[in-house]
Amino acid sequence: MSNEEKNNGFNRVVITGMGAISPAGFGVDALWSKVASGECCFSLLPEEKREQLNVSVVGAIPDYDPLKAGFSKKESRRFAPFVQYAILASDEAMAQAGIDMDQEDATRFACVFGSGIGGMEVFERESIVLHEKGAKRVSPLFIPTMISNMAAGNLAIRYGLKGDCLNIVTACSTGTHCVGEAYRLIRFGLADAALAGGTEEGVTNMSLAGFGNLGAITKSDDPEKAALPFDARRSGFVAGEGAGALVLESLEHAQARGANIIAEITGFGSTGDAYHMTAPEPSGEGAVRAMRQALAEGGFSLEEVGHLNAHGTATHVNDMVEAAAWHGLLGDELASKVPVTSVKGTVGHMLGAAGAIEAIVTAISVSRGIVPPTAGYAEADPECPVFVPSGALVNRPQKVALSNSLGFGGHNASLAVSPFTEVSE
């Protein structure tokens, strides 16, 4: 099948830059190193916070200090942590891509960057100010600091991106939907390039309390055994924080400027469950439709799927439903053989940033022919009959891999990611 046949005459979309900040540390190399080796990057909250919040283990960015990260005192006050994380990840991605905005048509360069919950830290702080000191003492910058579109807005200002400037909020599917929308803008010729991703400050008190009281966060007090995606012992997710950023370009645009191409996005699927506020539809049919859309857009057969980078939160229901969806997509025989991995065993659930981080890991996986393990996985669960590697699978060339995100409200998103080749096989 030719490229033209495979892409119906639309633009091919490639990844030329990636950046990350996560519980694994600063940078994509740190992220991949920890994921590929199956390490857990979690820590215990201080004892007083554990008692206050009834949560013990979190995926915090190690030793994060905005001043040491390069922000001025003024910037550290004006940029909420989720914006800071977005900037740090995007600086790395833009630098790796080698983007020179003086050589770009800024009106054709989009920014699609989201956050699931936005500036929770400043929301908490200013809520206390309102309660204790009155309305006149609330910061006049409270709203523009907190609202979740300010990651995209500040990134566009920072780099001079004048194309579409969007913040897609679909809970835990946010990062994947942002990358998928950026892909579509380029695929359909509405942009030449885009900065896309997701960011989250997911270990704030309010976030931990809310998810904890919902029963979604694990009560484990052992960082090494807290997040166990698809494992029979799983008991909920570990909340994480950070950001993932990708630079996407049309193949023509990337080749014209001599860019190094990391991988290719070959399809995107997006569906809704129309079922429940927090629970996925039990059969997983919405996730199946999203995966089918992504594969069909790239012209792939089921036999060509190399692995699934699953949403895999380690909650009882999510993993069971996603396993059912995997079987619904591939059929029982294939579904038991094609590997499934979840990076949430390493960095936790980074909420709105999760899909972007997972797209980065999937891109590296297909480009290097390595399927990473799921950290912590040891005991198979009959309710999740999927093949979850406990160690990295190397020398695994793949034509395509899927990266899934499933969000509260019934939002399903799936990216098809492939190694880049000049001519499709």
Radius of gyration, in angstroms, nearest whole number: 20 Å
Category from helices, strands and their pairing: alpha/beta
- Report mean pLDDT, rounded to a whole number: 95
Q: How many angstroms does the end-to-end distance come to? A: 6 Å
* N-to-C SSE string, H for helix and E for strand: HEEHEHEHHEHHHEHEHEHEHEHHEHHEE
Task: Estimate what percentage of residues fall within beta strands.
Answer: 15-25%
Percent helix range: 25-40%
Count of runs of 4 or more consecutive helical residues: 16
Number of strands: 13
Quick one: biggest sheet?
11 strands, mixed
- How does the overall form come out from the CA principal axes? globular
Written description of the protein model:
This protein has helices at 3-7, 28-36, 47-53, 73-78, 81-97, 120-133, 142-146, 150-159, 174-187, 205-214, 251-256, 285-298, 316-330, 332-335, 344-347, 354-368; strands at residues 13-22, 25-26, 43-44, 57-58, 109-114, 165-166, 193-200, 242-250, 263-272, 305-309, 340-341, 400-407, 411-418. Strands 1, 2, 5, 6, 7, 8, 9, 10, 11, 12 and 13 form an 11-stranded mixed beta sheet that branches. The protein has a two-stranded antiparallel ribbon with strand order 3-4. It is α/β, with parallel strands linked by helices. The chain starts with a helix and ends in a 7-residue tail after the last strand. The longest helix is centred in the first third of the chain and has 17 residues, at 81-97. The chain is built from 16 helices and 13 strands. Helix 5 (81-97) crosses helix 8 (150-159), helix 9 (174-187) crosses helix 16 (354-368) and helix 12 crosses helix 13.
